[in-house]
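If you are new to this repository, start here. Below is one unmodified record pulled from the training split, so you can see the exact layout before writing a loader.
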Amino acid sequence: MTPIRTVHTHLVHREHLAYTQCVPSAPPLSVSEARRQLAAIIDRVGVEHVPVYLARRGRRVAAVIDADDLDRILALAEDMADIRAAEEAREEMRATGETPIPWEQVKADLGLT
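And here is the target side for that same chain:
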């Protein structure tokens, strides 16, 4: 088996608290080797929850990752995009001196009350 190194990935979870998760990472497999080991790779990522990177001509080109892990990563990315958008909106309000619109007014304006 290939030696494993640790990569630090910074993530933000739903409560907006940052934490560091250590993700072990092995050197990438060639695409042709991955083809031969595909069933074992799929089993491995499902059990170990560690992506397996694939390389073509020595360059990483893809990764095999557990589907549930990918869903969690995508949810975290969406949360992070929302956090950044909110930060940008707050910064814009500070720069322009505008005040926030109360939620009850937004609902009324949209006919949701």
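Two things worth knowing about this chain: Residues 43 and 110 are 49 Å apart (CA to CA). The first helix runs from residue 31 to 36.
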